[in-house]
């Protein structure tokens, strides 16, 4: 599966669960870790996990099983590593605290079309 197809189903899953302030960065040629980085916020810990579960469901629907999840049930930040696409899901407070977007400032911020 192409990395852009993975990015597409990730963004769909986030949108379906009402992720907030979603940003995606094209890091091809800049980072050796991943081609795309995505960050989104959730209004609660429960929504954070619903977004992560939605991404996993979309991955399975697309026959994509190459992923890992970092974080626990009580985490305010979950990281989903889908190979060429890395997704960070935060509660609003955790996102403000960690401010990961500054790490990706060299990447191209992608325009995300809302459905």
UniProtKB/TrEMBL annotation:
Keywords: Cytoplasm, Repressor, Translation regulation. InterPro entries: Iojap/RsfS/C7orf30, NT_sf. It is found in: Cytoplasm. It holds the Pfam family RsfS. It comes from the Bacteria. One of its GO terms (cellular component) is cytoplasm. The keyword Cytoplasm applies. Gene3D superfamilies: Beta Polymerase, domain 2 (3.30.460.10). GO terms for molecular function: ribosomal large subunit binding. Interacts with ribosomal protein uL14 (rplN). Functions as a ribosomal silencing factor. Interacts with ribosomal protein uL14 (rplN), blocking formation of intersubunit bridge B8. Prevents association of the 30S and 50S ribosomal subunits and the formation of functional ribosomes, thus repressing translation. Belongs to the Iojap/RsfS family. HAMAP family: Iojap_RsfS. PANTHER family: IOJAP SUPERFAMILY ORTHOLOG, MITOCHONDRIAL ASSEMBLY OF RIBOSOMAL LARGE SUBUNIT PROTEIN 1. This is Ribosomal silencing factor RsfS.
């Amino acid at each position: 599966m192409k990395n852009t197809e993975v990015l597409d189903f990730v963004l769909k899953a986030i949108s379906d669960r009402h992720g907030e302030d979603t940003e995606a960065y094209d890091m091809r040629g800049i980072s050796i870790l991943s081609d795309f980085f995505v960050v989104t916020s959730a209004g609660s810990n429960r929504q954070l996990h619903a977004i992560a579960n939605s991404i996993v469901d979309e991955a399975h629907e697309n026959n994509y099983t190459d992923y890992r999840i970092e974080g626990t049930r009580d985490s305010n930040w979950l990281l989903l590593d889908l190979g060429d696409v890395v997704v960070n899901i935060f509660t609003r407070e955790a996102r403000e605290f960690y401010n990961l977007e500054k790490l990706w400032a060299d990447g191209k911020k992608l325009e995300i079309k809302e459905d």
